[in-house]
Each structure stands twice: as C-alpha cells, then as structure tokens.
Write a structure and sequence with these properties.
236 residues; mainly alpha; 11 helices; 61% helix
C-alpha cells in the first residue's frame, strides 16, 4: 500500500523536493534493497519459533518506516507554505524569455532537498523488512497450519487480498492530493493552481497508523493452530 501511495504522490514529491524523475527512482529502490539484504540473513532466521510474533514486530518496524517518510514535512518550516507553495527555482523559460529561447545561455540551478529524499528512502528501506517477513514467515505459517487440501485455496485468497492494499494506496493518494499540503495555509488555492501542492505526507501517516493498529493482533496467534485436519504442523 505504501509503495503504490508513493507512486501516486511521486510528481508532488518531485515538486516538493526539487528533484527529477530519474532521481526519484532511487527512493523506490529502498524497499527492494532491504528485501535483497534480508535474503542474506534468512538462513540464520529459519529456526525462529514465534513466527507470528516476529512478523508482528517486523510490521511495526514497517509502520515506523512509513511514518518516517512523512517527517520531512512534519519538521519543516511551515511558513514557506503560506499563501501557496513557493517553487525552489524560477522557471527557466521565464528567465530566458529575452534570449530567443536559447536556454543554454541562462542556466538555472535547481535547489534539491537531498536530506528529505534520503529520509524517505530510509523509510522505505525499513518498510521492506515487513514485506520480507511476511513472505518468509507469514506464508509458511499459513501453509503449515491449514489442511493440505485447503492450503492452495487459502493462500490464493491471502495473495488476492494483498492486491487490495495497492488499490487503496492509489485511492488514498487521490484523496490526500486534493488537500493543500499545509491545511489552512493555502488561502483560496484550488487543485490545479500553480501554487497548489498536495498533502503528500498525510497518506504516510494514515498507512503507518493502520499498520500499527493491525500488526499487534498477528502476534496473538499461536505457533500451532488447533486443528483436527492433516497439516504440515501436525506432521512435524
């Protein structure tokens, strides 16, 4: 959900931090990098007993990572949002109006907030831990505690359910970007105005809080679910 929410807010985040699309691609890689790094530790974690508890802890870590993505706004000086978002550089086409359109004669240096982008990268790097634990411990847990004949059906339902999260991420992105980045400071600005900037940070907080509420309940599941069916857990 966090990944698709970031996708829906990407253009707004590029505008906020003054970066290009190819530079923003590194932010998306944070989640994958942590999952790849997790593979090297997986052999040492295969004997973990309380898989549900550790999955719950990993999801809480993911919630913290997602919340971390909102901190570049939360700790930023809000006065810059008063009356509309002030872009960090003057459009090149305006400065070059008197140079017959030759932009090579009047370069404009863009000010990039690399610190804020690094925080978002770090947040998604941490959030990748939860994804890694789900596939490494959550899926085997379901497979071990469900009857062998029902295991494919249950796993297909779980995987299908995971597609709802990304869909909600896009819906949440569409809703938050209709709000001004700093509520109450945009004046009469409306979506589509030149000084309008969507509340890209708000969705990260919503996702983090939702994950924080749900994650502890996973830790309440026992290592072995009581069942009379033939399961892999009973075989072991």
């Amino acid at each position: 959900m966090g990944y698709t929410y970031l996708s829906s807010c990407l253009s707004t985040i590029e505008k906020q931090f003054g970066i290009k699309s190819q530079e923003a691609a590194w932010v998306f890689s944070g989640n994958e990098i942590s999952q790849i790094a997790f593979i090297f530790f997986l052999p040492f974690l295969r004997k973990i007993k309380r898989r549900t508890m550790w999955t719950s802890i990993a999801l809480l870590a993911s919630a913290f990572g997602i919340f971390l993505c909102s901190t570049p706004y939360l700790f930023r000086d809000k006065s810059q949002y008063e009356g509309g978002w002030k872009t960090q550089s003057i459009p090149t086409k305006d400065i070059c109006a008197d140079h017959s359109g030759r932009e090579d004669q009047c370069k404009v240096e863009r000010i990039r907030d690399w610190g804020g982008m690094f925080v978002i990268f770090l947040g998604f790097f941490i959030s990748g831990i939860g994804t890694s634990f789900f596939y490494s411990f959550g899926v085997p847990y379901i497979d071990d505690n469900v009857a062998k004949k029902n295991s494919p059906i249950v796993l297909s339902i779980v995987m299908a359910g995971r597609t709802l999260g990304p869909a909600f991420g896009y819906v949440l992105g569409g809703a938050t970007l209709k709000m001004y980045v700093s509520p109450g400071m945009g004046g009469d600005l409306k979506e589509g105005d030149s000084g309008f900037l969507g509340a890209w940070w708000l969705g990260f907080i919503v996702i983090a809080l939702t994950t924080t509420v749900i994650a502890p309940f996973l830790g309440l599941f026992p290592e072995r679910l009581p069942s009379d069916d033939d399961t892999d857990a009973k075989a072991n």
